[in-house]
Design brief:
heterodimer, A: 7-stranded mixed β-sheet, 11 strands, B: mainly beta, 4-stranded antiparallel β-sheet, globular
């Protein structure tokens, strides 16, 4: 399977704990995006990387959130001191870039904060 | 602020009925337009996309969409739906400048009765 993969698929944690998610993009895709999706809503942009550089962050991304893409391949999204409001599906997408940028999505990580 | 509006949150149709899902966006400048579909239990998949040229674009599974620039609209159509089209449909927009942050609509849940 050469699509975008995400791990874990599900994560249940207690409020106040830290969690980390991983995304492996389609190989050779230099752009990588993180989105959050809550029930009844479309995905909301969080941040994106061009290779290893994080080029844009949404105001949704509070100081408790950090994302990295150290070698320009896989990416991690960490949430510190989780809150119940962080419960959502976290989606990763990747693309080749260019003016006709088309993003391909992974299956997501569903986070439940108790 | 940039936004995408999908007119219907829930649509119920019988098999063989025609489908039209509305999408309007508020953006200035040149945009790229997408429709994504999410089948039950699956991840977001690209249905079709518009970048430039012929405003009537055809996608997979018999879907098509028409870009009407003057109306800031990109409506999705299918002449005859099937039970297997039951899914959630998301309209999305990005601009071919800068970060390609993609803005999604809230989605339309389509249920097709057999």
């Amino acid at each position: 399977d050469t699509g975008v993969s995400q791990n874990p698929r599900h994560k249940i944690t207690k409020r106040g704990q830290n969690v980390t998610f991983r995304c492996d993009p389609i190989s050779e895709h230099n752009r990588l995006y993180w989105y959050r999706q809550t029930l009844g809503q479309g995905p909301e942009f969080l941040t994106y990387f061009q290779n290893e550089a994080q080029l844009e962050k949404s105001r949704l991304l509070s100081d408790r959130f950090s994302a990295e893409r150290p070698k320009g391949s896989f990416s991690t999204l960490e949430i510190q001191r989780t809150e119940q409001g962080d419960s959502a599906m976290y989606l990763c997408a990747s693309s080749l870039g260019g003016v006709t940028d088309t993003q391909y999505f992974g299956p997501g990580t569903r986070l439940t904060v108790l | 602020a940039q936004s995408v509006s999908q007119h219907n949150h829930h649509v119920i149709l019988s098999e063989a009925a025609s489908l039209e899902l509305g999408c309007n966006y508020s953006y200035g400048g040149t945009v790229n337009l997408f429709w994504y579909v999410q089948y039950p239990g699956q991840h977001l998949q690209l249905l079709l996309k518009y970048f430039s040229g012929d405003p009537l674009v055809k996608g997979i599974k018999g879907f098509e969409a028409e870009f009407i620039k003057s109306k800031f609209s990109f409506n999705l159509r299918k002449p005859s739906v099937q039970w297997s089209d039951t899914a959630e449909y998301f309209c999305a927009v990005n601009q071919n400048t800068g970060g390609f942050k993609t803005i999604f609509g809230a989605g339309t849940r389509l249920f097709v009765k057999a």
